[in-house]
Specification:
This protein is of the alpha+beta class. The chain contains ten helices and 16 strands. It has helices at residues 2-28, 34-49, 84-98, 108-141, 179-194, 197-210, 215-237, 242-255, 274-282, 289-307, and strands spanning 55-56, 146-149, 152-155, 162-164, 170-174, 268-270, 309-310, 319-324, 329-337, 342-346, 355-362, 365-370, 375-381, 384-387, 396-399, 402-404. Strands 8-9-10-11-12-13-14 form a seven-stranded mixed β-barrel. The protein has a five-stranded mixed sheet with strand order 2-3-5-4-6, sandwiched between helices. The chain has a two-stranded parallel ribbon with strand order 1-7. Helix 5 crosses helix 8 (242-255).
């Protein structure tokens, strides 16, 4: 469970860079077509489900493995954020706080990560339970709704319009509502159904449930819900003249009372962000071709820079020579690597010992996990690996040119 939790933490950190990029684009280009904003949020969703990705030299993500998979077992735990300033400040603190004591059966970091993993799982369950509770409450509220026409219902217990349902979404309206206002609101809600946005919101909420611990994911979910409404408004009013847009805005103000708890119910669309939507509708202008083209190009750039993983700072060759921190090069000590993540280490030509295991390279740091529980740490410097004897376990390398234990 702890390993799965750390995997989700690393993915959320990686996706966090993309979320920040999307938020910045929203601020820098406020007049970007709102339907293209949804494309950006689609990229965020894709990044959150990518457990593996291609590598690219154009990637702007500092590191995809900020927290090493085996950090709980490191004698000197450290992170690889890809930002040297962050690593240099945090790693000494982390190493001091969670340094292993050989006499302890489990170190403090193992216990902490295990507890956090259980809290994460409990949070996922709570998020899904809250969605279920809000859905059941809405079901009870609209149980006595009266059919108006087709998929449109009215109810005395409904105070503002919303769409509710998955396979067969329905529109629910207040019982006492102005007919002219209802006309425009129904156009908006039917557009939600046509665009099948209920499914998009459910998918987004499921992702939020998995990554609830990341504040940026909450921000992304809230902005995504707002952008869905804005994009839907744009689609409805794109052929309206100024008078019709004014009537549409009045309808939003008349029937758009905020819906409490609507964000926690992925099966429902309520009228949220009314002020921003009214302002957007009243000042709406059809985007020019150049604006659309620029938005598409921006989307492509963001996809290239944030969907691909960065190439390793020093790509692993098939074989390396190593040296000690003091600078002595040992040509007879070699480490071979495979693309499948395995290594073969021969400490010395004089030694019959051959070590096998798995490895991880991130942030210019190489970590080897031996099959017998050994740990080996190296700094990746050009074509040479600099061995960190202080951080490594069991094997002490090179004394007068010999390997000793």
């Amino acid at each position: 469970m702890a390993e799965i939790f750390l995997k989700f933490v690393n993915i959320s950190i990686t996706a966090g860079w993309l979320i920040l990029a999307v938020i910045i684009f929203r601020l820098v280009f406020p007049k970007m077509p709102k339907r293209l904003r949804l494309v950006f949020w689609g990229l965020v969703g894709l990044r959150l489900i990518l457990f593996a990705s291609v590598e690219s030299m154009f990637s702007l993500i500092p590191s995809t493995r900020t927290i090493p998979a085996g950090i709980m077992y490191m004698p000197r735990p450290e992170i690889h954020s890809g930002l040297s300033l962050v690593d240099s400040k945090l790693n000494p603190v982390i190493a001091k706080a969670f340094a292993q004591n050989p006499e302890d059966s489990a170190n403090a970091l193992q216990i902490l990560v295990s507890v956090l993993a259980m809290i994460w799982l409990a949070g996922v369950i709570v998020m899904l339970a809250l969605a279920g509770i809000h859905t059941l409450r809405l079901c009870q509220r609209v149980k006595t709704a009266v059919l108006l026409e087709e998929n449109i219902y009215q109810s005395e217990k409904v105070f503002s319009p919303f769409v509710f349902g998955f396979l067969h979404p329905r529109i629910y309206l207040p019982m006492a509502a102005d007919k002219n206002a209802m006309y425009y609101v129904i156009l908006h809600e039917q557009m939600h159904i046509e665009r099948r946005e209920c499914k998009d919101k459910i998918f987004a909420y499921l992702l939020l449930s998995l990554y609830w611990f990341n504040p940026l994911c909450w921000a992304a979910y809230r902005l995504f819900c707002q952008d869905i409404e804005l994009a839907c408004d744009e689609q409805v009013i794109k052929e309206f003249h100024a008078e019709e847009r004014a009537d549409y805005s009045e309808a939003l103000l008349a029937l758009g009372a905020p819906h409490r708890g609507m964000l926690m119910c992925p099966l429902a669309f309520g009228e949220t962000g009314i002020k921003e939507r009214v302002k957007h509708v009243l000042h709406y202008k059809k985007p020019m071709f150049l604006a659309n083209a620029a938005a598409v190009i921006a989307c492509i750039i963001v996809a290239v820079c944030f969907l691909a993983n960065p190439k390793e700072r020093s790509a692993l060759k098939e074989e390396y020579v190593t040296r000690t921190g003091e600078g002595t090069v040992r040509q007879n000590c070699r480490i071979s690597f495979t693309k499948e993540g395995a290594f073969r280490l021969s400490p010395s030509l004089l030694s019959s010992r051959i070590v096998y295991g798995s490895y991880e390279a991130a942030g210019g740091r190489l970590t080897l996990w031996g099959m017998d529980g050994e740990w080996y740490f190296f700094d990746m410097v050009g074509d040479t690996l600099v061995f960190d004897a202080d951080a490594s376990t069991q094997i002490k390398w090179w004394e007068d040119g010999d390997v000793f234990e």
